[in-house]
Amino acid sequence: MHFFSVMIKQGMKTKLKLEEIEAEVIQKKINNLHLRVLPPDGTVRISAPFHTKNEIIHDFAFSRLNWIRKQRLRISKNVLESYKYINQEIHYYMGCGYQLKVQAKNEHPFVQLTDNEILLHVPEGADEDKRRSVLHEWYHSQLTKIISPLVKKWETILNVSVERFSIRSMKTRWGSCTPKTRKIRFNLELVKRSHACLEYIVVHEMVHLLEASHNNKFKALMDRFYPNWKLYRKELRSLPIKA
Ligand SMILES: [Zn+2]
Description:
Layout: E1 3-7, E2 12-18, E3 21-28, E4 34-38, E5 43-49, H1 54-62, H2 65-81, E6 90-93, E7 96-104, E8 110-113, E9 117-122, H3 128-158, E10 164-168, E11 175-178, E12 183-187, H4 195-207, H5 216-225, H6 229-237
Parallel strand pairs: 3-5, 7-9, 10-12
Antiparallel strand pairs: 1-2, 2-3, 4-5, 6-7, 8-9, 11-12
The chain binds zinc ion (ZN).
């Protein structure tokens, strides 16, 4: 059990780690424990009466872990399916949520990332398809920039060589590798996940150059080269693939 405390203005807010999920715990003047999963990013918020023991809060939340996962899945599906690429939507980049801000001017389209916003510069009158494609092209080029040095790094560590990697939208897989041709494909959706999850997929696909199937040898290689890989696999599974 891990508790991290931070003081906020109104009372005490604590963070509780439940496997791959981090929950906020807020102590209030209430009688019973409450748990909510909030859109758009699936934040888990637990309200607890003052002086509730940490173990009780933990057990309460832990017993609802599967329900929490289902809610998060449902929320993220709704959010992803309803993207219109308009102001104030929350879009994801490298594991963080950013508010989208559309800047419609007569200029060459580009994307700018600030501390909390993704600025989408598009020509005046750009429709939803245009806005989506500008953002997706940016995602694509960012992911290429992030993956290239990782592939180089792991070529050295694993003593393998990748012929070519490509990025595409895939419905069911994070990546794939053809050991015979040494070609690797990565899912564009990885650009929205944390760097550690992304690197896990890079390592996973490149370890396939040493072992093609997911057998014990493969798992032993993963344990050796990327010890926390199961944690990141779980994190990736906690949210659906949707590019
Ligand atoms: Zn695999």
